[in-house]
Amino acid sequence: MKRRSFLQGIALLPSLPLLASHAPRSQAATVVPLTKAHSEWRELLSPEAYAVLFEEDTERAGSSPLNQEKRAGTYICAACYLPLFDSQHKYESGTGWPSFTQAIAGHTEFKRDFKLIFPRTEYHCARCEGHQGHLFNDGPPPRGERWCNNGVALRFIPQGEALPALRS
Fold this sequence. Notes:
Elements: H1 3-12, H2 16-20, H3 38-44, H4 47-55, E1 73-77, E2 83-86, E3 90-91, E4 99-100, E5 108-113, E6 120-125, E7 131-136, E8 146-149, E9 154-158
Keywords: Oxidoreductase, Signal, Zinc
Organism: Pseudomonas aestuarii
Signal peptide: 1-28
């Protein structure tokens, strides 16, 4: 690599968040946030689900049974049971995690994540603030969005079954 190319690359580093950002479509806030201590969530969830939802861990790719789920239904937050995705928006992304083309409007919130140095858009359940996954702009048309979700952060409720009452 030539020195000039290297220096030009370094000069672009401050603008990387602008170049790599994916601004999610605005979503109206329709959910009242839930305040619950992390110790209470720890009692209700498996250690794996707690680590992903409230310590922002990531499950191993290909480990979720939800990758193979093809039935009609609703994907809800594994912590507070807020509906997050409709099965009609699920697709096979080839990433090893359940992926969706869009979420239920107003049921997610966003923040920037720099854990891999490159900025990413992280999304959380709007009700309990549980970490779900990341939003990328490499999904299928027409929206071009890939909502890459940790399977352990979701529960699937088949169509025709009643959704469980929201946890309070």
